[in-house]
Design brief:
The structure is a homotetramer.
Chain A lengths: L3 H23 L6 H7 L4 H7 L3 H18 L11 H17 L7 H8 L5 H27 L9 H22 L2 H16 L9
Helix pairs in contact in A: 1-4, 1-6, 4-7, 5-8, 5-9, 7-8, 8-9
Chain B binds a DNA duplex (21 and 21 nucleotides) through helix 1 and helix 3.
Chain lengths: ~200, ~200, ~200, ~200
DNA sequence: TATGAATGAGGCTTCATTCAT
DNA sequence: AATGAATGAAGCCTCATTCAT
């Protein structure tokens, strides 16, 4: 039997999950509290009981994403141990996008794109998420470097930023063209570029 | 004294220009016809006299962008004659973004990111724009190739796609982080990668 | 070669004809000047050049109907010379309704139904039309009476009113049920009732 | 003190009642949600909380009418036990119309007349209402017949249809002419016709 | 005669939120 | 914890009309 606390937490999470999906699918602007309420089969009161406002909900959705990334429970694995893992990291996102018929982009990029000067809090949530992702990617490059597997010119932070911007650009173009081709091209070029920083690569 | 032709066309263009700016600034979803109407100091009726609907306006805004790109009158120059021009192409966009205090992304990416399955017409308008941009970039790479200045492995279409996805990812991250740093990093890495396809580059 | 006057008159008539059809099809409230203008391929200016207002147009449409009834050029013939003609009068309207797939009622009833306390002018136009129709029907009954073919109890004015109300009720029900059955039932019952006023009818 | 159930239902019913009256007075087309909202002193949100759309409201209004007819709580009584009741049925409607100064017709006929090919749902609601009214009238005629009080030629269904079309035609003409005279004429003629189907009537 | 630009009120609906139970 | 009634601003669009050329 569920505890009283758990029952509430469940509702809260159900709302968050539904909202996360709708935000990913159609963006935050196009998603109204009403739509989230209906899709999560909750009541108006519950919604505003758990979330201060729509902005509050977005924040919570992003928190859940952030926790998943931090704890490694996200669909995409951000802890990289090898170049193979890096490839997997890129392609996991491509596969995710394909699973939605190329109708969606990156959930964070989609939200980030809608941010204006009035959405400073959300922008900071996103910045933090990307900061965490970046540091996870950087950790891998730093480890590679510490083991002498990167050329001197390699800059781990720049490489991490490059990865993120590359996948963001790739997925955005994939969504716009509704085709996985550009996405795969971009991912392969990005990987090729990154591998150029490995010692012993033919470009070195 | 205004010509008969100009009377209406002026109003129409005024609306389009105001809308283009608002769409760039806050996205299409966050921009209401009423806001466009007020900012362009027109009447409600005029708006719907010139544009079938909000979607129709977005379409027209994109048409104007497309024409500017095709005719070379856009702020960013898409006709590249040299690697210097390619660098300028990248940096012109970074500068544009900086001129808005890093609060905006690419006008096309911004709209593209908001596209859902119900906005098929707009999606196709954007696809066409990117198609045109791509072919302009490809023309440069093809010319380089034809003059033996690219390594055999170079694929001009892929390179063009890479340029577009790279700048899109860069600008989106620039907008989210409100910092030009990632943008510049991405642009430099992208250029480095592309230059790797030149014959005689140290990586070749 | 058309005279200058004729050209204008033509436009005017084209508008009236298109409007008459739209009013019949969807009523006056659901028909906007814009719709009439577009369907008649005219300009805004022309419309308000020929008609003071939408109300003015309705008035003119009704005038044209009235003239057609008076002059005998209407689709339905109101000059009755025999009981056969009376049957034809009823059935012509049923046929007209059938020709529109039972989606329309009587053009006058449709407009009359929409009349409110603010449409006094239109109401009077319609009253006049029905007055004229009534007197045409009454003329027939009076002639019959004067030739001793009606029973003493027959009242020609009441009989005419009965005809009109019967066909109005019939067509309205036909439109609502989308079926000609009620209409035909009503017409036959009405005819049976009227024939009961003939001398020598079995009911007499 | 209001019960939990009543709180919302009251508002809902208030809106329906106000709407029913406005629809009767000026038709559905001329009645805007805003007008209903104001007249029922509700908020915009409430309106759309209780009704999907304006069409939804019309539907609900008709449902309420239908229930009233079925349950016998309507102003007009449809359960007839005698020819006297049938007369009362006709005259109750005439009196109702008179009580509005002959400015309104039948509430159902008024709405039915405005129905176009895009209002299929409403048309069906009306069809159903008339179906129910018809069967109630038919029940009376069938009972009469079963007791041998109708001539062989009498067809109960046709008689019921005749009643409905007659009163519809009568009320429409009453509204257009703003006079109760035609209405009374029609009602009396209709009754005379119907009585002709009684055994022993002088017409038999 | 003819065209269509311009105006602003209003029509239908959704939004985000608060409140009462 | 949960429900859903209530609110009013705003969003997208059409209407009926007038004005300028």
């Amino acid at each position: 039997m569920r505890t009283r606390f758990a029952r509430g937490a469940e509702t809260r999470l159900r709302i968050i999950r539904v909202a996360a999906d709708l935000f990913h699918k159609q963006g935050v602007r196009a998603t109204s509290p009403d739509e989230v309420i209906e899709a999560s089969r909750t009541g108006k009161g519950q919604f505003y009981h758990y979330f201060r406002s729509k902005e509050g909900l977005i924040h919570e959705v992003l928190q859940v994403h952030l926790e998943a990334i931090k704890s490694g429970t996200a669909l995409v694995k951000y802890e990289l141990g090898s170049w193979m893992d890096l490839e997997r990291w890129f392609f996991a996102q491509v596969e995710l996008q394909k699973s939605f018929g190329m109708t969606r982009g990156c959930p964070f990029g989609t939200i980030g794109n809608e941010v204006t000067e009035n959405d400073e809090l959300i922008r900071q949530d996103l910045s933090l998420i990307f900061e965490v992702v970046k540091s996870k990617l950087a950790v891998f490059f730093i480890r590679e470097e510490s083991q002498g597997r990167l050329v001197r010119a390699a800059d781990e932070n720049r490489m991490a930023d490059f990865c993120i911007a590359a996948i963001q650009g790739a997925m955005l173009m994939g969504k716009i063209t509704r085709s996985s081709q550009v996405v795969e091209t971009m991912v392969r070029e990005a990987l090729a570029h990154l591998k150029g920083y490995r010692t012993g690569s033919k470009k070195a």
